[in-house]
Amino acid sequence: MSLILTLHPQNPQTHLLRKAIAVIKSGGIIVYPTDSGYALACHLGDKKALDKIRLIRKLDQDHYFTLVCRDLSEISTYAIIDDAVYRILKTYLPGPYTFILKATKETPRRLQNNKRKTIGIRVPNHIIAHALLDMLDEPLMSTTLTIPGEEVNILRAQTIYDILGNQIDLVLDGGDCGLSPTSVIDLSGHTPVVIREGKGDVDAFL
Asked: Is residue 132 a contact partner of residue 21, using CB atoms and an 8 Å limit?
């Protein structure tokens, strides 16, 4: 049976975060708050959970999943970062951006774009998300929560729970956290390319 846990937005309760970590490590799917709305996530490399998320979102095999990381040093394990890319990441992260980067050999193949060998990377600027990642001590496999058939993203955690409660294992209620998705910037080529304009300002990349 799925759960919904309400966390304090500034001081998330440790015992509730531990419950979320247990769900993630046991193969469960969670919904958690970020600085650009709620997102779906599961344990890194868990193919069964990843496939369940694909079914929930009705995603094809080419859809990008994002590695949600704590900081730039963690990103470097999974993505190739040269000096120019590092300067961009240091300027805009943490924040409401997803950056497409060339994947390293350590990145699970199921997370990469099959043709281009790239990976989406994100470091959210959100207290609950950071607390969860710090306790987990590794990245989350994640994607924006959009529900097929709904015209807009859902703002309230309780509404998400009411709609998806039988398809997910846990909702972390961190209050309203916006509706705009991340801006997606492809840094895998010679020049940045804006893939999606979202919450993050993209003027510098145009």
From this structure: yes
